Each structure stands twice: as structure tokens, then as C-alpha cells.
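To: structure subgroup
Subject: Chain for Friday's discussion

All,

I'm putting the inputs and outputs inline so they're searchable in the archive.
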Amino acid sequence: MTELALDKVTISATDPETERATIRKVAGRLMWFVMAMYFLAILDRGNISFAALQMNKELGLNAEMFGIAVGIMYFTYAIFEIPSNLVLSKYGARVTLTRIAILWGFATVLMAFTQGPLSLYTFRGFLGFAESGLFPGVMLLLSMWFPFSYRARYNAMFNYAVPISYIFASLISGAILELNGTFGISGWKWLFILEGLPPVILGIVGIFYLTDRPQQATWLTAAQRSWLLGALERDAKATGVVHGESVLKTITKPMVLLFGFCNFGLFCGLASLFPWLPQIIKTFGLPVSQVGLVTAIPPIAGLIGMIVLSRHSDRIGERFYYAVMTFVIAALGFAIAAFATTPVWIIIGFMVANVGIYGTQAVFWTIPQSYMSRQSAPGAIGLVSTIGSIGGATIPIVIGRAKDASGSFTIGFLVVSGVLLFAAMLVLIARSQLVKT
């Protein structure tokens, strides 16, 4: 798709009608697609949590082995994030995001052919490679389409897909597991097959549907394109980002690394919200169908919290202190879960943790989106996401090993809580360096 010539239309920076119409149209065009992608990605990333209810026994997996299988996906995801984001910046969203969707769909189906721990690690590793670059790619894409004052709410809208996906997975996975033995195929294998096909279809649709940049948006009027390009340019100047800076220079900046370590803490929380919960709830003595219903409660709380927190953050224009607050809420939730001795308190702990983690996911990412130049943002956001993914790769192994050694999740969840508190401190340090008082 060729770029349109820059529109020779002058629109006031404060023209409210053009602003509302443009944002509505951009959101209506882009958000359903990226949300559908992330919904399916989280579904395929997290279905191992429910598969474990049958798969672990069939394959002879202990808690540490399962933790390795969860974490190895984040490891291979991390390795290829920066290259994937650079490809998106150069060749556009259509090439990158559709390739990601089609590949990870096939990778999920391959999980049904798992025969033991080694093949499980291999297929999960391939899933991480296939999905690599999805989240930072969409964060980059949204920064190209939404001005600063709208980013928290649309970051949040994109991230609504995470709790919604977990809610859906909790409600549907038990039913799919009941297919156990149909045509001689185990229920956990049906889970991977049936949930791996939709992203392939969505990726094919995206080839014909996605638009890479505002300059190419024939579905915007000339006035709307002019307003949007002007608003994005004003944001770049207002946040003081440096244009023309090389990717290498940007990704070696202390601030970019600081953002990365903040995201490390966030990923430790994200990677701990769901993988263990069905197994914990199963110990309550519930049948598989009821395990799904109970598992859906914490992500419902997280979804509500994300909507409320992100919209309030946009309304008051505060990012840094908000991210600190949501990190602390998440840490509190995991601390409650660590010391919980009854099912009710375990669910309460995970509800609080979900609110904190998803709130952080929405608000935190507005900071690196807004303090990097357009030229350097692909590599920098990719590095921030890569460092975060390393957290996702390591924390499941830590929790699994601690569970095997102690017989409980207390130590593992306390480690997660401590890492989240440390990340909150790093956000304060970032604020002291970036915000002029």
C-alpha cells in the first residue's frame, strides 16, 4: 500500500469534533483486530494451565517440569522480540502481525503431538518464537495511531483481551477437556487443536485488512489524517524525545534498561497469575467443570480494575505514580495468596493481584511509548519487552522448584511480591529522571 501525500489541510489543534471523529474511527478500525489477536494469543499461551489437569499425569510432569514448560515460551519469545519489532517498523503491521498469528496457531496445534517433557519444551519454545514481537509490536503500532492523551485507555482496551481470554478459557477449557477419549484423542490434546486454528484464520484476514501508518489510511478523511499527524507530532515535541537517534544508542541508554527492569517485574506477575491457579483450585476437591468457573473470578476483577484505573489515569494525566500504585496493589495480592490458608483468601489474593497487574499493564506502557523517538522506539520498546519476557521465563521455574521443595506456593508467591515492589521503586527512579518539576 503506497503512502498518501501529506494532506494540505490545516486543522486547529483544539478542534474537538475532528478529534472525536478521528479517534473513534481509528479505534473502530484497529482495536477489534489487535484485541482479537491478543485474546487468541493469551488463550494459546495459557491453555497449558488447564491442559496440566490431565497432561501432567499422562506425561509424568512434576511442578518444576511444568514450570520449565511455562517459562521456556517466554525465553524464546524474548530472544526474537527486538528483531520482530524492527521488522514491523520497516515493513509494517500487516507483514509482522499476520505472520505472528499464523505461525503461533500452527505452533499451538503442534502441542497436541507432545509425547514427553522434551517434546513439550520444544513445542512450547516454538510457540514463544512464533508469538515473539506481538505485544511490543502492538504497543508500537498504537503509539503510531493514538496521541498521548488516549494511550492509557487504548493500551488498556488492547489489554482487556488478557483477562477476557482467561475468563473465556476458564469457562470453555473444562468442556473441551471433557472430550477426553473422543476419536481416541486425550482431552488436553483437543484443547491445543481446537484453540490453535482460529489465529491462523485471523492472520489471513489481517493480510487484507490492516493499515500500517496514518499516512496510508484511505479510510480517514483528509482533515482527520491532518489532525492525527499533527497531534502525534505535537506529542513528540512535548515529551522531548530526540529524533534521528540510532537504535543502538537508544537501547543502551540507562533509562531504556530501567524501563526493561520495570517490565521484568511486570512479567513476573503476569506469568504467575494464571498457570498455577487451576491446579491450586483443583486441590479444593472440585470437578474440572467447576474449577473453570472459580478460576474465572480473578480475571473478572482484573478486567474491571483495568478499565477503571486506565480511564482515571488518562483523565488526570498521571502515569508514573499510577504505575507505582498498581505495582504495589499487585504485590499485595501475591502476598495475600502466599499466606492464604483457605480457598476464599486464595481467590481474594488473586483478585487483588489481577487488578494490580492488569492496571500496571495498561498504565506503565504509556511511559516508554511516550519518551522515545519514532525512529528509535521499535528497538527500544523491543528491548523493554525482551527484558520483561526474561522475567516470564524464569519466575515459573522458581515457583515450580519452590513448590516441589516445600510442598506449597508460599515462597514462590512471596518472591513475585518482592519483585513487584522492587519494580515500583524503579518507576519512581524513572520519574525522578524524566519529569521536570
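Points worth raising on Friday:
The chain has one domain: 16-434.
The longest helix spans residues 16-59.

D.
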